[in-house]
Amino acid sequence: MPAEDDKSQKFNVKLIFAIIAAALGSGFQHGYHTGVINVPQEVLKEWLNETYQSSYGSYMDTSTLNLLWGLTTSIMNVGGTIGGLIVGVTANKLGPKGGLFFNNFLVLVATIFMGIAKPITSLEVMIVGRFFIGINCGLNAGLCPMYLSEVSPVSLRGAVSSVYQLVITISILIAQIVGLHYVLGNHTYWPYIFILPIFFAIFQVITLLFCTESPRYLIGVKGNEQKAEQSLKFLRMSDDVSADMTLMKSEDAAVKALPKITLSDMYKTRQLRIPLIIAVVIMLAQQFSGINAVIFYSTDTFEKAGLKGDNPKYATIGIGVVNVLMTIVSLYLVEVAGRKTLLLIGFGGMAIDTLLLSLTLYFADQNDFLPWVCIILTFIYIILFAAGAGSIPWFLVTEIFNQAARPTAVSLAVPTNWIANFIVTLTFPSIEALIGPFVFLIFVALDVVFFLFILKFVPETKNRTIDDIISEWK
Ligand SMILES: *[C@@H]1O[C@H](CO)[C@@H](O)[C@H](O)[C@H]1NC(C)=O
Questions:
Q1: Which of 43, 49, 72 to mutate to test the pocket of ligand 1 (most atoms within 8 A of CB)?
Q2: Alpha helices of 86-189 — where are they, by DSSP H?
């Protein structure tokens, strides 16, 4: 192991450059396209309605519009699922850096589709564009954290990997600001909302040209030690990278010595089946906690709560700010408070919060004071979510499996998350139209179920070795 004060194990200009090239380029697409559809939704829904009329000769009724709107927002998650499923193949064929580089081709295709949707009056083209950007984001979500952790020295891996999540929350915030009607979220300029991300793709293509491929990939997949050494010399800004080389080679040998574990192996062994169920449920819990309902439809919620004019949109931007701040705070919280505790506080709190939210929304128009309670409850919800449920499931999945089972577990857990996200986003507007504020009661029930599940089954993983955790399920 290299010594603690070894300069090669610290941040340097070139490593930071590589982190920015990878995280800013890909995290931006993921966060921006998640958040972009919310603020200008009235403008976009009207466009869908008008476009439908010019294509099919009649205007839409509310339920068709809700369904089509749900599809436009959620088709991105179908793409994301597909992208997530091909991360492994892409990383093996092109390398993490190569994969990120060529992934920008999908941004180009998606931008063309979404950019021309209005000029050629086609809502189908818009939906196809959202699908392509979804594939791009699914790939980014796998490749980017992989690249970030593989270019970083061991001592920095945790911190650097979380940069991706941080860029996502910041990009959601940027998308919300861009969507304001006097920025781009109006009838004339909204196509530019979907064209703007191309600049981040161009930025990434250019900056990645100056970065090296992941040394881990060069050794492990390509078997090219010379290139791996060159890459490490670049990333560490040091001519002596022998310590890193030795470490990477031994990590690689250790991984290759492990047997390959398939899904059916995992299902058959109790010791692997239980964590597999935990991994899937925790991903479902993250999405079915109601976060997407709150984020995607917050502007709507605030309007229903009685906010007038631009105020609902500012409140939504406030949510974005709180989300960014809490994501930063949560990086410390998980180390201090423990994963299980934060998850329990989060899901218990969200159950109570959504219960109160659905009641206050229902009575909101009878009292001048209640709309403000709605807004406060929404903010508390975001704080509770971002403190634990937002980030913990992603790394909890990696913490409850050993190196041999981890890739298979992750390749099931991540698509589960995208699919759950798809279901919530697709069905929420329709259910909301049907039962109004009581839609949040569904999340109350689910949050209670998840709370009990976590209480009974999820182990605390903080400061514990993987063998110790696994021994619980013997
Ligand atoms: C679609 O537009 C027409 C004409 O402006 C309008 O009457 C109708 O209510 C709109 N449909 C929905 C679901 O908003």
A1: 49
A2: 87-116, 123-151, 157-161, 163-178
Pocket, ligand 1, Cβ cutoff 6 A:
49, 59-62, 65
The closest residue, in CA terms, to atom 14 on ligand 1 is 62
Rounded to 10 degrees, the C-alpha dihedral 237/243/248/251 comes to: -150
Task: For residue 284, give the nearest of 112, 454, 464, 89 by alpha carbon.
Answer: 454
**Helices and strands, number each (H, E), in the chain:** 23, 0
Among protein residues, the one with the nearest Cα to ligand 1's atom 13 is 62
pLDDT in tens, 288-318: 998 877 776 677 778 877 778 878 888 888 8
CATH topology of domain 3-211+258-473: Growth Hormone; Chain: A; (1.20.1250)
Ligand 1 mean position, distance from CA 366 (Å) = 28
* pLDDT surpassing 90 at residue 277: yes
Q: What is the pLDDT of residues 162-216, one digit of tens each?
A: 788 889 989 999 998 999 988 999 999 999 999 999 999 999 999 999 999 999 8
Distance 67 CA to ligand 1 centre (A): 14
Residue 27 Cα, ligand 1 centroid: separation in angstroms?
A: 36
Give percent helix, percent strand, percent coil of the chain, each to the nearest 5.
Answer: 80, 0, 20
**Nearest protein Cα to ligand 1, atom 7:** 59
The burial of 342, by beta-carbon neighbours within 10 Å (0-12 exposed, 13-18 middle, 19 or more buried), is given as buried
218-263 confidence digits (pLDDT tens): 998 899 999 999 999 999 998 888 988 998 888 888 888 878 788 8
Tell me how many degrees the CA angle 345-331-3 measures, rounded to the nearest 5. 140
